[in-house]
């Protein structure tokens, strides 16, 4: 067995700095009313002794927990298999770390988890919540609203009741889809199909709407429903080839689905891009660069979206006026998209 050194106490810091215990408490817990020379002596003593403030005591003074819940409305099997979530979490983590705040990850395996998440958020454990990958019938927004927790959403919210205001961060899904289809038309493709994402999510609906904006008189047989997964892309591609074997291009709702699309085209002897041009959405590296052939896709800055979500929440908690980014409408930040040209189209 080994003995560990006892943790420095508030009294030890006060003795080192030559001030009262109350003065030390105000400085380390974020209180006001301490002259700067005294505060500097306390900070120096804290550093010399390696004192770590008691979070419970600090919370009583600041009414902050220095923790933010990240709620992903997906099962863990999806979250840990999809690079999209890793990129978004990385952006969130970087921003929270820069503000000395902890990330608390909450996943929802099913409906039973919604009440658990709502109870946790209402229990005063975190300062706010970042919520993404919502589905249109998801009760989480209402439960979180009832919990009274400051919240920023990832993706345009799907409710239109005019009651719940929402701050959110998203990319220009509809505009990006229009860019993708116009790019394919510019290549001379005329029979362009679309494989959607899960249509209970606003991102998939917006990308489908963008496709229809350009292909207003499209044959319904050129649209197949996917679910943002490789298996869904594979299934939808088989359906399209059965219905419209003459198609010459496919706009796929995300890069993961495009993996399944490329697999089916290769199995059926269709050359990409000579016979069928393929364009995805997300530009998730290294997936888009390592497909065969490398994937032309619509880029959204996923990590930046996560960072901006955290930044908007912290800005709201601190009451600051720092500019968060290109605000497209009062309640949200919408980031631009661009086509990244590679070999698949």
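^ structure tokens above, recovered residues below v
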């Amino acid at each position: 067995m080994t003995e560990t050194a006892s943790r420095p106490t508030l009294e030890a810091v006060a003795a080192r700095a030559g001030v009262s215990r109350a003065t030390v408490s105000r400085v380390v817990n974020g209180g006001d009313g301490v002259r700067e020379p005294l505060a500097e002596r306390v900070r120096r003593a804290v550093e010399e002794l390696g004192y770590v403030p008691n979070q419970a005591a600090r919370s009583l003074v600041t009414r902050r927990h220095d923790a933010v819940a990240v709620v992903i409305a997906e099962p863990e099997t999806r979250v840990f298999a999809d690079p999209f979530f890793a990129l978004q979490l990385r952006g969130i983590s970087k921003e929270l770390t820069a503000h000395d705040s902890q990330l608390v990850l909450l996943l929802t395996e099913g409906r039973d988890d919604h009440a658990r998440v709502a109870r946790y958020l209402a229990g005063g454990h975190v300062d706010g919540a970042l919520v993404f990958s919502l589905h249109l019938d998801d009760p989480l927004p209402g439960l979180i609203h009832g919990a009274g927790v400051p919240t920023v959403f990832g993706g345009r919210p799907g409710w239109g009741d005019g009651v719940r205001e929402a701050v959110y961060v998203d990319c220009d899904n509809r505009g990006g889809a229009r860019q993708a289809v116009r790019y394919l038309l510019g290549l001379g493709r005329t029979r362009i199909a679309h494989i959607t994402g899960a249509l209970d999510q606003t991102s998939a609906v917006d990308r489908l709407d963008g496709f229809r904006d350009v292909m207003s008189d499209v044959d319904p047989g050129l649209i197949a429903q996917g679910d943002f997964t490789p298996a869904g892309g594979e299934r939808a591609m088989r359906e399209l080839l059965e219905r419209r074997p003459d198609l010459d291009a496919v706009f796929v709702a995300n890069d993961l689905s495009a993996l399944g699309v490329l697999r089916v085209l290769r199995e059926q002897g269709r050359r990409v891009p000579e016979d069928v041009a393929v364009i995805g959405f997300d530009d998730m590296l290294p997936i888009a660069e390592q497909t065969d052939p490398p994937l032309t896709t619509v880029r959204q800055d996923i990590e930046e979206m996560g960072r901006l979500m955290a930044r908007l929440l912290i800005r709201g908690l601190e009451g600051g006026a720092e500019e968060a980014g290109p605000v497209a409408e009062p309640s949200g930040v919408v980031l631009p998209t661009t086509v990244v040209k590679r070999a698949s189209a």
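Confidence is low (pLDDT under 50) at residues 320-330.
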